[in-house]
Amino acid sequence: MVAQLPEMIANHIELGRRYSLRPVINATGVILHTNLGRAPLSDAALRHLVEVAQGYCNLELDLESGLRSRRDIHVESVVLRVLNGASARATDPDRHGVIIVNNCAAATFLALNSLAEKSEVLVSRGELVEIGGGFRIPEIMEKSGAVLKEVGTTNRTRLADYESALGPETGLLLRVHQSNFSIEGFSERPSLQELVELAKRTGITLFEDQGTGLLSSLERFGINGEPSLLQSFACGVDLIAASGDKLLGGPQCGILVGRKDLIERIRKNPLLRAFRVDKLTYAALEATLQEHLSEDATTIPIERMMGVLSEEIMRRCRQIAGQTVCSDLALNVVPVVSLIGGGTAPKASLESFAISVRHVTHTAAELLAALRRLEPPIIGRIADDTVLLDLRTVPPEFDADLASLLSSL
Ligand SMILES: *Cc1c(COP(=O)(O)O)cnc(C)c1O
């Protein structure tokens, strides 16, 4: 005991110096894991973030005129270029605008509060969702001062339901993406296009809480039918809210993009000041959006992870299992399904492989906890009393570390 004292003291000091927020190895196979910080940033985003953070920057200074400017300027044109399908329309900044806030929850709240305080907002009963972490549409609506007017039923809402609920008190039509669940079977709701037409016909603004921030489509990863920002924008939704750190693959933020007059009204809301983001967010977001405009979007980590072939993951699993030397562990390579997560594409799954790990004496829960105590911590998951380490979400440069960490158990 006494002999171990120096080592114990050294450990104690070491622990005291350690940061609370630390990098971990995400071996859950969930690409956008909210508990693990959602989207990892690309190299370009990191480089831009560091160069902007290291010194001063033109956050609110127009370098031409020397006058004060708006921080949203730094991403407005690149957002609009991305949404116009890269064909930069010179006139677009006259018609559309962009506001960046802390997250999509803030974007939705701010839009409702700015455009519909004290007036009715029509929402389908099938879209009164809880996204997670306390974000529930009816509660956000109430806090924003808007009056919720439910239309249709949980499983079926028709255009006629919106039409008959319209009245002098109506301030907004709201469409909410059913991010983290799906309604199967006897169900219907109007297409976004039909709602756009209704909005045009009646002069009522259509606001969409799009959520996922998916830009184009996930078809190249074999995932069909996930609605995208490009589709919403192209079909003429007046105002859209989306997350920056879900399928966009950027920093945590909320993006409001839409008609210039609506954006101007939101900009006048004194609450915007409470929701605005810092230079680090603009730097990372601007760089991420520019990468989406380039030919090769695989520089964005989540794009790369979605695109890895399962055979390649199997090969890596076998290699790590072969390199791990620990007589207390039994390792196997098994087929699994990775998830996109983060409240997006609930039905989508990606075929993958995992290392299944069993310990001679520890239960799966004990083994999972032991993995979390490693440095860096390894985060796995349990299925059928076995710990699974899905390598889809582990960058290959960690493979050698993973083998030696497992060997140390
Ligand atoms: C994820 C999501 C939100 C919340 O986004 P955050 O950026 O996490 O605040 C809101 N609405 C929808 C439809 C979502 O999918």
Keywords:
409 residues; alpha/beta; Aspartate Aminotransferase, domain 1; Aspartate Aminotransferase, domain 2; 2 domains; 7-stranded mixed β-sheet; 5-stranded mixed β-sheet; 16 helices; globular; binds pyridoxal-5'-phosphate
Description:
With 409 residues, the protein is α/β, with parallel strands linked by helices. It folds into two domains: 17-41 and 302-407, Aspartate Aminotransferase, domain 1 (Alpha-Beta Complex); 43-296, Aspartate Aminotransferase, domain 2 (3-Layer(aba) Sandwich), CATH 3.40.640.10. 37% of the residues lie in helices and 21% in strands. It contains 16 helices and 16 strands. The protein has helices at residues 5-17, 43-54, 73-83, 92-95, 104-116, 137-144, 159-165, 192-202, 229-234, 260-267, 272-275, 279-293, 301-307, 310-323, 364-372, 399-407; strands spanning 25-26, 30-32, 96-101, 120-124, 130-132, 135-136, 147-151, 170-176, 205-211, 239-243, 254-259, 329-341, 349-359, 378-379, 381-383, 386-390. The strands form four sheets. It has a seven-stranded mixed β-sheet, sandwiched between helices. A hairpin with a 2-residue loop joins strand 5 (130-132) and strand 6. Helix 3 runs parallel beside helix 12 (279-293). The longest helix is centred in the last third of the chain and has 15 residues, at 279-293. The model has no long low-confidence stretch (mean pLDDT 94). Residues 103-105, 108, 131, 135, 176-177, 179, 209, 211-212, 243, 254, 343 line the site of pyridoxal-5'-phosphate. Pyridoxal-5'-phosphate binds at residues 103-105, 108, 131, 135, 176-177, 179, 209, 211-212, 243, 254, 343.
